[in-house]
Amino acid sequence: MAGIRVLEVGHLLAGPYATMMLADLGAEVTKIEPPGGDISRQVGDAYFASLNRGKRSVCLDLTTGEGQARLGELASGAHALLVNMKPSVIRRLGLTYADLKRWNERIVCVALTGFGLNGSDEPAFDYVIQAATGVAALTGDPAGPPTLPGYSAADNSSGLTAALGLLAQIVSGRGGQVEVSLRDVMLSQLNYRASAYLNEGVEPRRLPLGAHSYYVPAQLFPTAEGHLALFITHDGFWKSFAAEAGIEGFPTMAERAEHRAEVLAAVTQALAGDTAAGWESRLRPLGTPAAVVRTLSESLTATPEAVVRAGGFRLVGSPVRVAGYEPDYRPPPRLGEHGAATAVGMVTES
Question: What is the residue range of the signal peptide feature (predicted)?
């Protein structure tokens, strides 16, 4: 993406994550921050770095005439603007395509909101969206309360979707408004759950140990030591697993689904005979999808190639690997490090 200039007016996670993915791919991302900076700077340096490496920082007060004029100068030399704020704030600060096309008819303006640019103005943070769309209700043990994943699933997913929308409109060669909402992204990611309800009237329900609603056995299992994730999606996987585990019967997907309780009881009994690590080492050579439930620290230790340096920070690198291209992982910018706009496409160093 060398030569592509992207402006960001965002805070916390979804918007900054989207533009960091673009910066990792070579885009020049200028983060437009208010005088006090993105509030994620207050969370901590490592937190801020995890979402803003490789960007430039310009301080603008967009509530003033001077700030709006400088925004226009930057917009005239940019390919895209991505903003994640409430719809009322986006409009009040002049961050829509309708506002900015006078400066640049080909600019792509992406509004990343909770419920759509013409939707509700209510606060829409990650956990709120997961609760509102049914994700929390589907997560956790059936006998316990609803729960949430241990990371910001809605924000991260929406950030990636917004980056995709931005790139698609740039490729079209036309300027225009692009909208992505956290609500719509999470509903979209409930794909087969939503389809089962909409087409067959099947109410989604929680199953123990995160069991899949269609595939059996596909869930977490206790072992002699630790838990194992097993994901048997077709009869070939089952055949090799069952032979190794000493389980007879249930040769087809339909039979395993029909006799879910019996299958799970047999698998649970068999897996109790070895540790999770032992089963992983036995099943992997067979091509059976299985993995020990590891902590994040254990996972990062096992995958050093995923960790990069950006200045003084150790961070997880870009998940997009392009043959012949190596990201330039630079540290996050200091607040206002690159000054304010003074000419088309240019900034002054502070």
Answer: none
pLDDT for 245-293, tens place per residue? 999 999 999 999 999 999 999 999 999 999 999 999 999 999 999 999 9
Q: Which residue has the higher pLDDT, 10 or 157?
A: 157
Contacts of 298 (CB under 8 A, 6+ apart): none
pLDDT for position 123: 85
Flag whether pLDDT at 348 surpasses 70.
no
Q: Which helix (H) or strand (E) holds 186?
A: helix 182-189
Distances (CA, A) of 39 to 12, 47, 156, 315: 7, 11, 18, 20
Report percent pLDDT > 70 for the chain: 97
Contact 181, 116 (CB under 8 A): yes
CA dist 111 and 125 (Å) reads 15
44's CB contacts (< 8 A; 6+ apart) are: none
Q: Extract the tokens encoding 136.
A: 């929390």
- Of all helices (H) and strands (E), which one includes residue 308? strand 307-310
Residue 292: strand pairing partners: 228
- Residue pair 126/151 in contact (Cβ under 8 Å)? The answer is no
Give residue 343's pLDDT: 38
Can you tell me the distance from the alpha carbon of 187 to that of 205, in angstroms, rounded to the nearest whole number? 16
Q: Which residues contact 257 (CB under 8 A, 6 or more apart)?
A: 214, 215, 216
226-245 per-position pLDDT tens digit: 999 999 999 999 999 999 99
* Cα 338 to Cα 350: distance, rounded to the nearest angstrom: 6
The alpha carbon of 56 is separated from its chain's Cα centroid by a whole number of angstroms, namely 22
Which of the 8 DSSP states describes residue 213?
Answer: S
DSSP state of 332: P
